[in-house]
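EI: anyone free to look at a 244-residue chain?
SC: sure, send it
EI:
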Amino acid sequence: MKRFLRMLLNNKMLLVLLLISIFIIISFGVTYNWEAIINLNVEIINYYYNILVDLSVGYIISLIFYFIVVYIPETNKKEKIEKETYLHFLRLNTHLRNLIFYIKRTFDYNDKNGDFFGKKWEEIFENISKEEVFRLLERDVSSIHYIAKHEELFEESSETKSYYQEIVYYTNKINNLLDELNPYIFFLEDLELEIYTSLKTNLFLENVDNLNVDTGVVGLLEWNLPKLIDEKNNLSHLLEIKNS
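SC: here you go
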């Protein structure tokens, strides 16, 4: 009954037509045996009144049929989809918050430790001879990780590496959730669709697997952080609306 009332309140035209139909049916029953108030043919009045009553009964039956066959299944489907999308956006909000947290931790670590890689390069050239450098070059060494492995002169920060791993982990979580939302695109509301599209087309999120500590990734993270914070704020606003 509550759903039926909700359907009528959400569509005022259906409600008005239902009230008119009920009024016609009741008034016909009440006035059926009345004498003519004005000088008109009673049979003609009753004929047209019967047509109106039949139309009214037909409308009420059609409305009940629509409610049972169409409205209830569609409402159940919509509520299920809304629940699924809400949970997905809730999880997106959590993962995006964690992603921003680890990006900020990366900045804090680099600010605290200064030019980490620059210092390591200085240590390398302080501790190896020119002959050793040429020997390594002759062996086609193209990565500083070779020196780290064989000479133990370079040791990547486990803390920084951990932050990057967390960034990749939560970004992949976000991408997985966005993929799971694909079947519901046509059911998303405007703000939901805007957030989904913005995250889905974010180049940083798409290319996170290419992150590594040797490619100026800190600058890349710093450049994308404001946009990610905006997305987080939009998500929080969406969830506030959903919970209100």
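EI: Residues 114-122, 136-157 have pLDDT under 50 and may be disordered.
SC: 👍
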